[in-house]
Design brief:
The protein is of the alpha+beta class. It has helices at residues 2-17, 107-138, 146-168, 175-195, 200-208, 223-235, 241-258, 265-279, 283-296, 303-314, 349-367, 381-388, 405-409, 434-444, and strands at residues 18-25, 32-39, 42-50, 56-62, 67-73, 78-83, 87-92, 102-104, 338-344, 370-376, 394-396, 417-421, 427-429. Helix content is 48%, strand content 18%. The strands form three sheets. A five-stranded mixed beta sheet has the order 11-10-9-12-13. β5 (67-73) and β6 (78-83) form a beta hairpin.
Length: 447
Amino acid sequence: MKSFTFWCLLALSTALQGQTLQGQLSQHAGQELRLLGFAYYQTIHLATTVADSLGHFVLTYPKDYVGMGILKAQNQASALVVLSEKKVVLSGTHLNDLASLTFFNSPANTHFGYYAKAQGLYANAQSAWQYLDKLYTNEVLFNGQKKLQKTIQKEQLRLQKEEAAFVAGLDQKSYVRWYIPYRKAVQEMPGVVRRHTERIPAMLHQFRTTNFNQPHFKTSGLFREYLEGHYLLIENMGQPLDSVYRQMNLSTQHLLDNLQANDTLLPQVAKNLFNYFEKRSLYKAAAYLSRGLLNNFEGMLDPSLVAQLESYRKLKVGATAPDILLQNNTKLSAIKTRKLLVFGASWCPACKKELPELLANHAQWKSKNTTIVYISIDTDARAFETTYEQFPWQSFCDFKGWETQAAKDYLIFGTPSYFLLDANNQILLRPKSVAHLNAWMQTHLKD
């Protein structure tokens, strides 16, 4: 009677408080179980419980949460679950043993589990058939087998249609029906760049017709990966840099247009995308994003982000860069050659990687009337001297770290950062790397 009363009270409590994921995981008996969810760029906590001595558990999470979740055990084992029904029941042995997991009263998880397994098999089969297709098309030993070639191509088409038919057969209003195509895109982007570049136009079209205001994105756990994966796809699609930036800007414009009325999500996308471009040294893409945001959405943005965006308005190509007071009261503007201004630090791994490249190019650049001036963000005098005393260019550090006036004037938020200036401190280029600078010099400089 007490047990009956307990479960009745539990059912009543659940109805009032939220939805449940419950069941039994025998090998997680006595362990803490956590249920995590997503909110665009963040992973959020939904619920925590401790499984009993037989592995039974009940997790109650907010009634308004619909999306993907991660069920995580104390020993770090985890499984992805669909949280789109009020009550999901799970039975199995261990979260890492996906074959043992069975869902009851949850068509969404049953469909997703079936698709996840099938999609892996489809991908392996397609990879094998594509290899054979190229072999029988391009190699003299095999390319006479026209009938077999047709069979190979027919099977590839059948697999594509069968996979698409499964998704099309799902309830159009279900979370899984919406989720699968975006999960598939995220998973396939790296392979498309390496092996299937013919599919890039379709992926660009998918992104530029995506409605990012769709609420399902918030709880998908795919949002960051889908956006950043798309720009990485463009960056690595083998096009000239100007073409790469043009494609990035088209996608950025779609994002800004699509989210223009979304004053909650747009600031998040703006900050994270700008930081991504900065991290990847995609300065022209950052400049385009900055102009679009400052011209149309400045009132929506955090003041600290506005300050960063301003660096692309204040320090754009063609603008006059701020002067810098160097050693012995010498000013940067007194150096009457082109100047490669480098902001770095002894503790910066990327800076250490690029230092040998700077050294290797120093003599060649000097012969083209270009001087390296290195501004260090170090605070440790010994580390500065040990790192830079061996290099043949002028290095400057006032040991104030990020508070050094030059870093503040040039709105430096990451290292290494580069500016190529002419003899009058006019900005000629904001190189993303030594290789980028070399390519620019070969194209633009005669002396």
